[in-house]
Write a structure and sequence with these properties.
The chain is α/β, with parallel strands linked by helices. It is built from 28 helices and 31 strands. 42% of the residues are buried. It binds one RNA strand through strand 8, strand 12, strand 15, helix 11 and strand 27.
Length: 898
RNA sequence: GGGGUUUUAGCUCAGCUGGUUAGAGCGUUACGUUGACAUCGUAAAGGUCGGAGGUUCGAGUCCUCUAAACCCCACCA
């Protein structure tokens, strides 16, 4: 073994060996409860980032832990086609070549998209392999593969047949840049500077000027009413009147509606049903015309759009509330921002413009391209949410699905209880095409599992499939069961559904988690997972979100190349608590790398001293052996418990502390004298314990640092096969509380001596004699610890004395729970300094004693605190009183000698 | 407007159902290469746990109020 752990040299080989051997593959074992995770499928848009790395690490830790525990485990991987995100990327790339979607045509475009999927999908799975991901690649899926597509179509048809999917003309969020509708969840709000333009609309009947305010004057061409509150005293006289819409000179009604808030502005609102969600609803209530003035790519409509629209109406195929399109005349073809300027200017000219206030307001933007979204009335497909949301809410209320940490339930409920119908159609080409056909002859809509040849109503062959595709989340919503073979009732589906745990970030609870829950209940009759383990975001060193635009993203692969996958994984777990964001820093990675190296070298040490497998002989164990075995089992219990809870941050910290501080810094150091000594029994003892605990440490650490532990395991004598398939350590074999107590007493003595030596500036190389005046019950233990004092406390010789008076030389002293330690230091001892030091110790001790006494003299404490606690305090008091006595005696002695 | 998170050592963060003198890593200081490891060891300095009340024998931990930072949802014509 090399003196340094070199991850680059081993990771690739180990991963290939694992994968080739089939170690990742899931096996159904009837009668045993499986542990199942479906991996959140990364988008095929690019490459993995730190968020994926964390997601992946958490899942792999859970999977490896359960695999070692003997649960049949399935971790099902895959990728997501990410309709809009991928399409945007492909179009961008085409633009560089001077191509457009339209010039290429749908078919050619899709060819490109599949090629893209091939390239980037593979790149992602390669990256996942580098992370050490132990998922079952034989079951890898893609949201647009044949099976998933079949599931999508099946769900679409079922919901359609039940009336839960419908086509309707509604106001939707429209991204003019991506040129598609997007769902409510895909709108992000950003604060932007804007203005409040006050406008005057003349009242036809009275001639007065009605003042109102708007943030979007360019929509005024589409106004089909103004609203006032029915209760508003200021405008009672206007009930039933009309206003003349400036610029267009068009008469529109004044309607009475609650939406008009008397306390805001003038209490008058202009109503643009085609381009504002609230106005749309007002329009529905009052049966207003809907006039569309924007094109789908964000410009003002003109003669061309109007003509198309007129033709639609003429053909009789217009929807019930199909909007009318306005030819905006001089504004036609302008972008909305250009039109805004022009219209404001013209309003001013006409004397219709009042004051302009500036304000900040939240503006909806597209989550993909951050273009301001335009609410638009258009014909889309929707999922009726209310009936689906109800059981999904109940599933979480009743605990069938549990969020960890629990607080994220509130997010979920908040979203689900205020849910609106889900717009699922997208005006894109990359995705699952909507399985609906329109008959050119009779207008019948056919939704079918199999592509129809003829119209089932009129028998016509002139069928056209809907041009749109489905929202990418429609297929991801089915992921927990579509990937297991649904709609067929496969063996995998029967055995692994519902899955055990879903691991994901809090940012996609609404997008994804909620939709999987209602889809699972709807299609499978059962919630798709028992636990949702939520983690936070990985931020940069300054706490900022990692993003392309900031250029502060860190590529996981670069970190792996430099420090190894284990270091990266461990750094993403250490000190992380569930649901909270974490900052990525190279310092943490280095700390993790150092830890890996520490384990490597500890293993190297054990192996240099142990050539063959040695079994533990319980009869010959020393105090130190029993101590480490007991502490090991405590670590096993704690780590197992944290793993069960999905609290891997605590597990990682615990194994770090146990391995480094207790095993390396203490036990290995205490083992050295025995290994170098003559006593063969003692030597074998220590070898056995070293091997045993090391193997245990490797197992406990394996879920977090799989490569290192697997590699080292192979060097251990008497091992064969993969560590990843070995059983998880069990506690319950070793428990020596008495030796634990003694050992800790000795450790305190050693620490005190080291402390004293440092304080007295004793050169590290200078060995000194030690004399102990033991406290009752400790003589034997101290006597047997000579080797440890020699090794760990710089003792040349240690001996017991019976009374303080036996000390005849100049010494410094430290008082411990096990007794008083005298260190003859000759010339190094300055009596005055020593007295000052001891007096300070005395002071501290006195304070501590009075604190405990205060506690014990409190009748409430003695009466109400648990007995064990009170007893503990009493014992502590006693120990400290002993120390105090010893200290006082020592001070007196010193005073005499001066 | 509704909801949530965070606030603990110079920095990054742990601290489970309230119970030793509040911990770790990094950084700082001093000493140290004793054959596993300088990607190391030993020791030290550093915190009235954002503030104010309260509950309790006992509060970093529970409750109320409050301050600051951040996030989610809804809305702003």
């Amino acid at each position: 073994m090399e003196t340094k752990f070199n991850p680059q040299a081993i990771e690739k080989d180990i991963y290939e060996a694992w994968e080739k051997s089939g170690a990742f593959e899931a096996h159904r074992e009837e009668g045993k409860k499986p542990f199942t995770i479906v991996m959140p499928p990364p988008n095929i848009t690019g490459q993995l980032h730190m968020g994926h790395a964390m997601d992946c690490t958490l899942q792999d830790a859970a999977i490896r832990y359960h695999r070692m525990k003997g649960d049949p485990t399935l971790w099902l991987p895959g990728t997501d086609h990410a309709a809009i995100a991928t399409e945007v990327k492909i179009v961008d790339k085409m633009r560089e070549e001077g191509l457009t979607k339209e010039s290429l045509g749908r078919e050619k475009f899709l060819e490109r998209a599949w090629a893209w999927k091939e390239q980037y999908g593979n790149r992602i799975t390669m990256q996942q392999r580098r992370m050490g991901t132990s998922c079952d690649w034989s079951r890898e899926r893609f949201t647009m593969d044949e099976g998933c597509s079949r599931a999508v179509r099946e769900v679409f048809c079922r919901l359609y047949d039940k009336g839960l999917i419908y086509r309707g003309t509604r106001l939707v969020n429209w991204c003019p840049c991506c040129s598609t509708s997007i769902s409510d969840a895909e709108v992000e709000y950003e604060e932007k500077d804007g203005n409040f333009w006050h406008l005057y609309y003349p009242v036809k009947e009275t001639g007065e000027k009605l003042e109102l305010a708007t943030t979007r004057p360019e929509t005024m061409l589409g106004d089909t009413a103004v609203a006032i509150n029915p209760e508003d005293e200021r405008y009672k006289h206007l009930h039933g009147c009309h206003v003349i819409l400036p610029l267009l000179n068009k008469e529109i009604p004044i309607v009475l509606d609650e939406h008009a808030d008397m306390t805001k502005g003038t209490g008058v609102v202009k109503i643009t049903p085609a381009h504002d969600p609230n106005d749309y609803e007002v329009g529905q209530r009052h049966n207003l015309h809907i006039v569309r003035v924007f094109t789908y790519d964000g410009r003002m409509t003109g003669a061309k759009e109007k003509q198309e629209n007129d033709e639609l109406f003429a053909s009789g195929k217009a929807a019930v509330n199909e909007p009318v399109v306005l030819d905006c005349g001089p504004y036609a073809g302008m972008t909305t921002m250009e039109a805004r300027k022009a219209i404001v200017k013209d309003l001013e000219k006409g004397g219709y413009l009042g004051q302009i206030e500036s304000l900040k307001h939240e503006v909806g933007t597209c989550y993909r391209c951050h273009t301001v979204v335009e609410p638009m009335v258009s014909r889309q497909w929707f999922v009726k949410m209310e009936p689906l949301a109800r059981p999904a809410i109940e599933a979480v209320e009743t605990g069938k699905t549990r969020f960890v940490p629990e607080r994220f339930e509130k997010n979920y409920f908040n979203w689900m209880r205020n849910i609106r119908d889900w717009c699922i159609s997208r005006q894109l080409w990359w995705g699952h095409r909507i399985p609906a056909w329109y008959c050119d002859d009779c207008g019948e809509i056919t939704v079918a599992r199999q592509d129809p040849d003829v119209c089932p109503k009129c028998g016509s062959r002139h069928l056209k499939q809907d041009e749109d595709v489905l929202d990418t989340w429609f297929s991801s919503a089915l992921w927990p069961f579509s990937t297991l073979g649904w709609p067929d009732n496969t063996e995998d589906l029967k055995y692994f559904y519902p899955t055990t745990m879903l691991v994901t970030g809090y940012d996609i609870i609404t997008f994804w988690v909620s939709r999987m829950i209602f889809s699972g209940i709807e299609c499978m009759g059962e919630t798709p997972f028992a636990t949702v383990l939520i983690h936070g975001l990985v931020r940069d060193e300054l706490g900022r979100k990692m993003s392309k635009s900031l250029g502060n993203g860190v590529d996981p692969l670069e970190i792996i190349d430099q420090y190894g996958a284990d270091a990266l994984r461990f750094s993403l777990l250490m000190g992380v608590s569930p649901g909270n964001d974490t900052r990525f820093s190279i310092d943490k990675v280095e700390a993790a790398r150092n830890f890996a190296n520490k384990i490597w070298n500890a293993s190297r040490f054990v192996l240099m001293n142990t050539q063959e497998k040695v079994e533990i002989n319980p009869d010959t164990l020393t105090m130190a052996d029993k101590w480490i075995l007991t502490r090991f089992e405590e670590a096993v219990k704690d780590i197992s418990a944290h793993n069960e809870e999905g609290d891997f941050g605590l597990s990682a910290t615990r194994i770090y502390d146990f391995a480094w501080s207790e095993f390396c810094d203490w036990y290995i150091e205490m083992a050295k004298p025995w290994l170098l000594g003559e006593d063969e029994t003692a030597k074998r003892n220590v070898q056995a314990v070293l091997l045993y605990v090391l193997e245990g440490v490797l197992k406990l650490l394996h879920p977090f640092m799989p490569f290192l532990t697997e590699e080292v395991y192979h060097y251990l004598p008497g091992t064969e096969g993969f560590l990843m398939l070995k059983p998880w350590p069990e506690a319950g074999k070793w428990d020596f509380p008495e030796d634990l107590r003694k050992m800790e007493g000795i450790m305190e003595v050693i620490r005190s001596i080291r402390n004293l030596r440092a304080e007295m500036n004793v050169p590290a190389g200078r060995r000194t004699r030690l004399m102990f005046l033991p406290k009752e019950g400790w003589a034997d233990t101290l006597n047997h610890a000579g080797l440890y004092f020699a090794r760990l406390a710089g003792a040349s010789q240690s001996s017991l004395i019976e009374k303080a008076a036996d000390v005849t030389e100049k010494t410094v002293t430290t008082v411990t729970g096990a007794g008083t330690v005298y260190i003859p230091l000759g010339d190094l001892v300055d009596i005055e300094k020593e007295l000052a030091r001891l007096n300070k110790e005395l002071e501290n001790l006195t304070k501590e004693i009075s604190r405990i006494e205060g506690k014990l003299n409190n009748p409430g404490f003695v009466a109400k605190a648990p007995e064990a606690l009170v007893a503990g305090e009493r014992e502590k008091l006693q120990t400290n009183q002993h120390k105090l006595e010893a200290l006082k005696t020592r001070i007196e002695e010193l005073k005499e000698t001066r």
